[in-house]
Amino acid sequence: MEDILEQITTCIEFGKINKAAPYPPNMKDQDGADELTKQALEQGVKAETILKQALITGMDRVGKKFSEKKIFIPQMLMSAKAMNAAIEHLKPFFTSGEIQRKGKFILATVQGDLHDIGKNLVKMAIEGSGWEVIDLGTDVKSEKIIASLAENPDAKVGLSALLTTTMQNMKDIVQNVKSHYPHNEILIGGAPVTEDFRKQIGADFYSPDPQGAVAYLNQ
Amino acid sequence: MTGKERVVKSFQLGNSDRIPWVPFVGCHAGKLLNINATSFLQSENNIVEGISKAIEIYKPDGIPVMFDLQVEAEALGCNLIWAEDNPPAVVSHVLSEGVKLQDLKIPSNKEGRIPLILNATKKLRSNFPDIALYGLITGPFTLALHLMGTDIFMKMMESPDEVTELLEFTKKVGEAMAGYYIDAGCDIIAVVDPMTSQIDPGSFEMFVTQPATEIFQIIRDKGALSSFFVCGHAQQNIEAMCACRPDNISIDENIPLDFVGKIALKHNISFGGNMKLTVVLLMGTPEDAQREAMECMDLGGKKGFILAPGCDLPMDTPIENLQAVTSLVQDPYLQDIVRAMEKSEVDLDLLNMKDYGKAGKIIVDIITLDSESCAPCQYMVEAVKNIAPHFEGIVEWREHAIKRMESVTFMNSLMVKNIPTICIDGKIAFVSKIPPKHELIAAIQQRINEKLKLIISSHKAEILIIGNNAEECKQIKNNVDTAIKETGKNIKLSVSYEEKTRLIYGVAITPAVILTEHKLKTQGEIPKVDIIKEWLKDL
């Protein structure tokens, strides 16, 4: 069992999706995250064990390498794809309640901003660490976030912005959401966002990379 | 030296008279015309008018004609969505919507907004022959991403040949665009490729190095200069960018300027940047902008450095923040001041200045950088020195050169913001300008008069004699009159025979004498409760 879990972890770490995937070249024609997860379940490994010991461990390695700038977006996206292939097999166990999530995380790119690469990377990292992510998409107004918090009152919120001008919208959204839900933590990120800016707008946490957000949520 | 000569010299790593200043004014020029980004970026006249206005108020050495990385994508069929205060965003990626790469054609100079930019370039060229004009083209990787969407990141892994082929096409687009801009009169072609910050050096070398190198070679062959702009965390790729042989590299605040400078100069490439766009230029004050510019200039140094914002200026950047940078760049003396003032950033305990200037003498403080090395400071000190003999024994003067820490504390305590400044009895009197002799004398004389008035009026008093009748008070009144006359004091004397008055003062046996002293404490201001309480303690 140890073996197959380590194999899944390696597939996620290096972005090996399935047997047919050509990437990475040194794992050509080997089983990927897709096949191995299916096999593990067939062998009777518990879904929760696969999530915790293979997927979360794999994403943890990916996240660390990303924040250490050893890998970049292309590699991270390949890992995300591999993880999604594995998660597909675990979905029924989430629905049945056999696997418990750590909590809910509402995620959005702020109003006026259509960029979603950063948001999607964060989504993958946080999902991969065992949280349920509610993805509100891009160009999201504060009303939509407030409505989502009404349905998920314990959720934490993540906001992304890529443009300097939409940073202003981020500020308005944080203030608006905080005026309704002062105790729900808001995490922010995006290329122009800084720790100074976080302090200015009263958000709870800033991280320059997804791994920082994962570490914060799981602390 | 003209601005253009200055920029060119810096690009060639030669000596210029000062660091060149190139504000990346894009849709910010729309703000200067009070129109939105959409109207600005779609009109030849607005571009010409807006950039002309920016040249007038920011006095740059170089400026981009247009900062919009969506021009090529739009000409190639991608849909844009337009915004009020931002360049447009690409919302559809032709290659992910069924269009084949072989069906895409290199845009001619008649397509999309290209002709209006070229016409604007020609007009600006003829109106401003002495300013370096930058033509901005979308870098090959960023354009590829516009055309293919974010799938490109996975395609780089899953079908690298497809991505290489796409970059070969975007390179040709870049070469064509560079040619159009050079022919229209641009001096410098900036290849703006921000999305390369998202990839590793290995991927950069595999996909970007060759197309970028070829674009820079074409620019060189056409006799123009080139710059490679990136924004974001592109630290890992700086070496690889230099290897593409641009003449200049420009980066934003995510990468330390000294780090880039070191690598670029090692490759004999000039560099530029990286003033903080949002926290400083957009949200800060003119003083913040000057401190930031100074820090960049000191890190960048004189050789091969161009002062610029990290990227396209946010539309709403306050005009005064950029003007503050302009005045700093042009004025070495102001640079010395800003450097010295940086010290005052450290949290200093302010001196309690409440009682400053209440002494008998008049105190004149001159806050300077250092009168020995700064000419305006020297003249200001001399101006004070020259009039001092007129007030011998009455006026004391001191110089506070803020090269010393205690002087910085003193300056902050007096709330002085400019150098040099003259304060009289702790109040700011002359800021930055050397007062003519008569003005300085008049200012000091005015303060002397104020103090004298204060002294005289503080001696005002009243004497009240209380008795039953005139007979009873006669002798006392005579004695008080004599005493007042003999001492020459300004005292009002009155006599009251009323019982009510006796009761008010609690007089049991008459005749009685009441002395009331009037002391002027403040005038022309509202004293705080705490201060009034202090006075009351004396009663």
Tell me the Rg of chain B in angstroms: 36 Å
Largest sheet of chain A: 5 strands, parallel
For this structure, what is the CATH homologous superfamily of the largest domain in chain A?
A: Cobalamin-binding domain
Measured by DSSP, the beta-strand proportion of chain A falls in 5-15%
For the terminal residues of chain A, how far apart are their CA atoms?
A: 28 Å
Lateral strand order in the biggest sheet of chain A: 2-1-3-4-5
Helix residue percentage of chain B: 40-55%
Class based on secondary structure composition and strand pairing of chain B: alpha/beta
Count structural domains of chain A.
Answer: 2
How many DSSP E strands of chain B?
16
| Overall geometric form of chain A | globular
The number of strands of chain A is 5
Q: Approximately what portion of the residues of chain B adopt beta-strand conformation?
A: 5-15%
CATH topology grouping of the largest domain in chain B: TIM Barrel
**Spatial ordering of strands, largest sheet of chain B:** 1-4-5-6-7-8-9
Poorly predicted regions of chain B: none
Sheet of most strands of chain B:
7 strands, parallel
Overall pLDDT confidence of chain A: 90
Q: How are the SSEs ordered, and which strands pair?
A:
The complex is a heterodimer of chains A (219) and B (539).
Chain A: H1 2-14, H2 33-42, H3 47-67, H4 73-96, E1 104-109, H5 117-128, E2 132-135, H6 142-151, E3 156-160, H7 164-180, E4 186-189, H8 195-201, E5 205-206, H9 210-217
Parallel strand pairs in A: 1-2, 1-3, 3-4, 4-5
Helix pairs in contact in A: 1-2, 1-3, 1-4, 2-4, 3-4, 4-5, 5-9, 6-7
Chain B: H1 3-11, H2 28-32, H3 37-41, H4 44-58, E1 62-64, H5 71-75, E2 80-81, E3 89-90, H6 114-127, E4 132-138, H7 140-148, H8 151-158, H9 160-184, E5 188-192, H10 201-221, E6 225-229, H11 238-243, E7 248-250, H12 257-266, E8 270-275, H13 277-282, H14 286-300, E9 305-309, H15 319-330, H16 332-342, E10 362-368, H17 375-387, E11 395-401, H18 405-413, E12 421-424, E13 427-431, H19 437-457, E14 461-466, H20 470-487, E15 491-496, H21 499-505, E16 512-517, H22 529-537
Parallel strand pairs in B: 1-4, 4-5, 5-6, 6-7, 7-8, 8-9, 10-11, 14-15
Antiparallel strand pairs in B: 2-3, 10-12, 12-13, 14-16
Helix pairs in contact in B: 4-6, 7-9, 8-9, 9-10, 14-15, 14-16
